[in-house]
Amino acid sequence: MRSHCFRRLPEVELPVRVQTEDFDTGEEIARLRAGNPKIGAIAAFIGLVRDVNEGDAVRELTLEHYPEMTGKALSAILDEAKQRWEVIDATIVHRIGSLKPTDQIVLVIVASSHRGDAFAACEFLMDFLKTHAPFWKKEQTGQGARWVEARESDDSAAMRWNKTPPA
Amino acid sequence: MVTLRYFARLREALDIATEHIALPASVDSAEQLVAWLRQRGETWQREFAPGKNFRIAVNQQMAEANTRVKDGDEVALFPPVTGG
Prior knowledge:
The structure holds 2 protein chains of 2 kinds. By secondary structure, chain A is of the alpha+beta class. Helices cover 34% and strands 32% of the residues of chain A. Chain A has helices spanning 25-33, 67-84, 115-132, 152-163; strands at residues 16-19, 41-48, 52-53, 56-65, 89-95, 97-99, 104-112, 135-141, 144-147. In chain A, the strands form 2 sheets. In chain A, strands 3, 4, 6, 8 and 9 form a 5-stranded antiparallel β-sheet that branches. In chain A, a hairpin with a 2-residue loop joins strand 3 (52-53) and strand 4 (56-65). The longest helix of chain A is centred in the middle third of the chain and has 18 residues, at 67-84. Chain A is globular and about 50 Å long. By secondary structure, chain B is an alpha+beta fold. The longest helix of chain B is centred in the middle third of the chain and has 9 residues, at 30-38.
């Protein structure tokens, strides 16, 4: 006899999340692609805590954000990506709080019909997240605690998207 | 009233996270607000010195120097972001 089991409803997940807990990329991808036969390509990026920055050993990283702005900023970045490329669905997860080297910091997943749009939108999302989303890193090194300085290379990475409209 | 919020290195340097101020008569843009804050003393002058790298958000949106600031707004001042 076939048992009639009620499938647990998928948990409602916002496309953009900020959390202290770690994330499972496999689970996130599974949730994103579940039952959608239009998706032909998924690109994912994961940012990790390194054990060295500016030549100093990093023991710990503390991430703070501007809670009332973060969701709006990430949603705006996502909307912009959807204007530029064919994005069927996307997930952005950013962690806050205390992190250690090898810990995961950020996850961006983009689902599209084809790889070109998935790769481009994923890279665009990361470049804009790094320059437009209100997160700040403070690192604990052997020399004490210090705020991580923004990099000019991040600004130029975001700027290039102004010059290169998608084909 | 205008709510001012400070984040990250700026919050630590100025030793304040949030404050509510009556909008000064001389202020109706982000730039004018910063000029007004500079008058508060040496630390404020240093942190908001021209050429110093900081960002302003008005009502949780990234602002420009000439972005309007009006009564009831929330203005946040913070260093360039470093997430990701």
